[in-house]
Design goal:
Elements: H1 4-7, H2 9-12, H3 16-33, E1 42-44, E2 73-77, E3 85-91, H4 108-112, E4 117-121, H5 131-147, H6 149-152, E5 154-164, H7 166-174, E6 176-178, E7 197-201, H8 216-219, H9 223-229, E8 234-236, E9 246-251, H10 256-269, E10 276-280, H11 298-307
Parallel strand pairs: 3-4, 3-5, 5-7, 7-9, 9-10
Antiparallel strand pairs: 1-2, 2-4, 6-8
Length: 313
Amino acid sequence: MSLDSHYDNRAAVPTFADFLSRWIAASQAARVQASTGKGYFSQHAYLTEDHFDPSELCGGVRSGPPWGSTRCQVDFFSAAGEGPHPLLVFLHGGYWRSLGPEVFHCIAPAWTSRGAHVAFVGYDLCPSVEIDQIAAQCRAAMRWLFAHGDLLGVDLTRVVVSGHSAGGHLAAMLASAPMPEVSSRAETASRGFSIAGCISLSGVFDLAPLAQTGMNADLRLREVVIAGASPIYRMPDPALLTDERLALFVGADELQGFHDQHAALMRAWGLNGKAIAESLPGLHHFSIVDTFTDPGSRVFQVAERMLGVIEWP
């Protein structure tokens, strides 16, 4: 049975193109307003899953595996004033097969004006890579950020990972570790970073249902990828299960598939009473992104508290 009707967000929200156009225009303005050479840079990375050396990421584009491309980048927007400052990392959506970090740069000004740096992580897209490789790229990007934290003026005790849709999946991957039976994999040798919080908007945490959709022509989901890159088969970072440092949000008006995904991670990680988990009224899969720039929204206020730009009550 096809599950396209549970996951086809563009069909469910006919005005989706209006959201994308607005974000792109606002992102262009954000780049213009950023401090050239100080507030924004793009770092291209050569990445492999089984080896990481921060020095390799300082020399620009290098030849290598097909997924070590120029899309592997970190776009960094700096907060004003002397640091160190907290860092909000944002992972973009697009079902791992479209869009890029540049679409979402519009998020940065709301946070840099509050004293937080913002980093947008780019990655290769399906079908040229598989989702487990994308997750490996995001881990390497985080290690790069931590390796260069002092240079960037980052307070490494206040790094919050966030993401929307496919980015929500990738954020959950960064907030988790493999089950003990696969702990010998290279991924677990040294994570190289420790996050202070994780916010997932409309995330996908079980990849299996997507294998029953038309998009699987691009995703090419195999059983080994589903098992290795589905957060429901991993263990949450225990440090995030205290003090409301893990937050899962889904729009109340989203498709059923995303409500099912939300519930699946709640069960798999035993999150009742240990995390913020909310369905936000009046929001669908695209409008929920705007909560990251709305100081009056629940999402924005949770992010402020995780970053430490306002005090916890």
